[in-house]
Amino acid sequence: MRTETGVDALSEGRAFVDLSRWRKVAVGGGDAGTWLGDLVSADIRDLEPGRSRRSLLLSPTGGVRAEFTVAVRSDEILLLQDEQQTRSVETLLAPYVLSSDVRLADRTDELSLLAFPAGSGEVLELSAPAAERAAPSCAGDGGGFDVIAPAGSHDELVAALSRSHEAVDVTALDAWRVAAGIPRVAVESREGDLPDEIGLADAVAADKGCYLGQEAVAKARNLGHPRRVLVHVTAGEPIAAGDEVRSGELSVGIVTSAAAVGGGSVALARIRWDARDLPLTASGVRLDRVRRPGQHPAAGYFPTLKNKYQIE
């Protein structure tokens, strides 16, 4: 399947991707919910079985140490983490257990994870034993859903889902997330980056009173602005991750992710704060900012998404 075809299938809710290699860390024990809620950036108090929420673990100075999705199952809390992140959220959380009634367990090899980044899945039948849904998807941007099931039923589940949906690979998923303007930690981020600098502000509960790094994040938001921002752009010619971003003769950033669209590209780029409204180029090609009306950053520029978005 061509990558653009896979992207269209994902955006229309007709496809899924196998993310079983992603880390799956179970948090159990009598203090699990309260303990986790006091550490992570998202407000997870209202999560019920079948629901999930994107969150971060920050350093005391507000830097992003890990990004993951908190998914509540019928009998446990799971943290779903992109395998590309170098540090496991289990390793990062372990020092904070201390005397709390909390147990951390790596269940990566025990569970399958199939992601539907878009679509409601209302008519999706799950025939595999102990398969559960969690929404929104760990691979989406506030939509879609995931299917979590025992690893032993992986092949059966994939075969069953393939009868109604297309199975696409991670290459199509990565192109889809770039088209949707979704940042990926370890790709868009560097050590010490604040959430607002890498497009992850939505993973921080603005009215939450307690989490690691809360004071540093609040200070940055209330007293200043981020050092850099992540912008979502298109180019009429091919550009690539690693290309320098310039404004005139001035170097202002770098392309962090790019996906081919016809003869051009859609991309994410890290740029200096003071260049956020300046004209930009990469490899001599003009970059146009993509915006969803009323929101920034925006999403989408593959064929089936064009009508939803506007280009400046």
Question: What is the compact description of this entry?
Answer:
With 312 residues, the chain is of the alpha+beta class. It has helices spanning 3-11, 32-37, 89-93, 154-161, 170-179, 214-223; strands at 15-18, 23-28, 52-58, 64-72, 77-81, 103-106, 111-116, 132-134, 145-150, 166-168, 228-235, 244-247, 250-261, 264-272, 280-282, 285-291, 310-311.
Summary keywords:
single chain, 312 residues, alpha+beta, Gyrase A, domain 2, Elongation Factor Tu (Ef-tu), domain 3, 2 domains, six-stranded antiparallel beta barrel
SS content category? alpha+beta
Query: What is the total tally of β strands?
Result: 17
CATH homologous superfamily descriptor of the largest domain: Probable tRNA modification gtpase trme, domain 1
Could you say what the CATH architecture of the largest domain is? 2-Layer Sandwich
The largest β sheet comes out as:
6 strands, antiparallel, barrel
**How many angstroms does the end-to-end distance come to?**
31 Å
Spatial order of the strands forming the largest sheet: 11-14-13-12-15-16
Per CATH, the class of the largest domain reads Alpha Beta
| Count of distinct structural domains | 2
The portion of residues assigned to helices is: 10-25%
Distinct helical segment count: 6
Radius of gyration, CA atoms, in whole angstroms = 20 Å
Q: How would you state the average pLDDT, rounded?
A: 88
Query: Which spans have pLDDT < 50 for at least 5 consecutive residues?
Result: 293-312
Shape field:
flat
Strand portion:
25-35%
Question: Can you give a write-up of this model?
Answer:
By secondary structure, this protein is of the alpha+beta class. Residues 293-312 have low confidence and may be disordered. 15% of the residues lie in helices and 31% in strands. The strands form 3 sheets. Strands 11-14-13-12-15-16 form a 6-stranded antiparallel barrel. The chain folds into 2 domains: 3-169, 2-Layer Sandwich (Gyrase A, domain 2), CATH 3.30.1360.120; 227-311, Aminomethyltransferase beta-barrel domains (Elongation Factor Tu (Ef-tu), domain 3, Beta Barrel). Strand 13 and strand 14 (264-272) form a beta hairpin. The chain is flat, with a radius of gyration of 20 Å. Helix 1 (3-11) crosses helix 5. The chain starts with a helix and ends with a strand.
